[in-house]
Amino acid sequence: MPRKPKPLEPLDLAVIAILVGCQEDAGLSQRRLARATGMSLNRVGIILRAEGPAPTVGELDALAGALGMRGSEVLRRAEGQIASRPAPRARAEADSQTGTRVGTQADSDTRAPSDP
Length: 116
Known about the structure:
Elements: H1 10-26, H2 30-37, H3 41-48, H4 57-66, H5 71-83, H6 88-98, H7 105-109
Helix pairs in contact: 1-5, 2-3, 2-4, 4-5
GO molecular function: DNA binding
Protein name: Helix-turn-helix transcriptional regulator
Pfam family, one: HTH_31
C-alpha cells in the first residue's frame, strides 16, 4: 500500500504558488521546465499541482533557476506572504471576539477608506 505524502505546509503552498506564477509569466510549459531543470516531467507536475511531497531544496533551486530566480529568493517571498497573514490562533481569537471571520467581505467593509 503506497504511503500517503505528508500534507503540504502553508510555506510549501506559498512557494508553489510563486513558482506557478513565475512559470505562467514566463510562458513555460511543464515539459520545457522539466527539460530546463533536468527533473522528470512527472515530478515537475506533482510539485506545481501541489500534490506533494513538497519540493526539496535542490528542486526548488532548479525550478527557480529555470525561471530566472534563486531558490532563496522564492523562499524569502513565500515567507513574506506567510508573515503577512494572521496566525491561525490570532484569527480564531478575532473571530470569537468580533463574530466576523478575519479576511471576509464583512471584515473588509469595516476598514477606513485610507486602509490598504
